[in-house]
Amino acid sequence: MNDFAALHRSGDPLVLPNVWDVASARCLVEAGFSALGTTSLGVAAAAGLPDGTGAADAETLRLTRALAKLPVHLTVDIETGSVGTAVAVAAAGAVGVNMEDAMGPAEAHAALIRSVKREVPHLFVNARTDTHWQRPGDLAETLRRVRLYADAGADGVFVPGLAEPAHVAAVVSAVDVPVNILFLPGRHTVTALAELGVRRISTGSLLFRAALAASLSTAEAVRDGLAVRPNLPRYDQVNTWSTAH
Fold first, then answer.
1. pLDDT confidence of 243, banded at 50, 70, 90?
2. Average per-residue pLDDT in the chain?
3. What percent of the chain has pLDDT over 70?
4. pLDDT tens for residues 33-74?
5. pLDDT per residue over 141-192, tens digit each?
6. Residue 1 has pLDDT above 80, yes or no
7. Hey, what's the torsion of the CAs at 65, 117, 33, 128, to 10 degrees?
């Protein structure tokens, strides 16, 4: 974990792309990214399963085993998570996990963090709170939860949906562990978040959703006689990316 933890630097945050299969991971490794995360939405949707319900646990573990063969640090989104799932992905080669509280009882999530750290102390636990995710933000509750999770042993805290600079700065000041922010196009820049003290910036499901949008626009361009984007990856290139070796 130490090498991965060291990537969370003040002033030079870890920009962490989130992937959903081997090909998406390998192209990012070739682009020079030293760490990757998985996106639970992308993994679940690619398997025809709902996100946020634990339905894609088996697919997540299979993907972890495949991606662990790559020369990159890997952190895995295990949704709300469990001790068993955290132990399994760590044994499969992950150096970290995201565990979300889904706005359940904060004390229960803190207890889960303590249990995971007791079983796999080397695993980087990024404790996510959903105080700002698909709901009006509650800064006071956010600060209470991130402090509780940091005190429980979380190695980092994650507040997706947080956008206001003053609120980001307040979270950074509230804890000693690295703060992770979900990149929101049009709301964030890496430079601005770095200046606020953020040490990790995730893309979440952004890349997966962008890939879906590109697929749709390309199909429509073919149908409607419009130009298709040039310089697409070659067949042989994608075929190479599709193996983790």
1. confident
2. 96
3. 98
4. 999 999 999 999 999 999 999 999 999 999 999 999 999 999
5. 999 999 999 999 999 999 999 999 999 999 999 999 999 999 999 999 999 9
6. no
7. 110
Q: Which helix (H) or strand (E) holds 52?
A: none
In 79-175, the DSSP E strands lie at 96-100, 124-128, 156-158
Residue 45 contacts residue 220 (beta carbons within 8 Å): no
Q: Tell me the C-alpha distance between 138 and 134, whole Å.
A: 12
Nearest 10 degrees: CA dihedral of 52, 56, 57, 58? 180
Query: How many other CB atoms are there within 10 angstroms of residue 51's CB atom?
Result: 17
Backbone torsions φ then ψ of 62, nearest 5 degrees: -60, -45
Sequence-distant (6+) residues with CB within 8 A of 212 are: none
Residue the block writes with tokens 């469990």: 82
Q: How many CB atoms lie under 10 A from the CB of residue 187? A: 14
What the block records as the tokens of 144 is 């209470």
With 0.85 as the threshold, say if the pTM is over it: yes
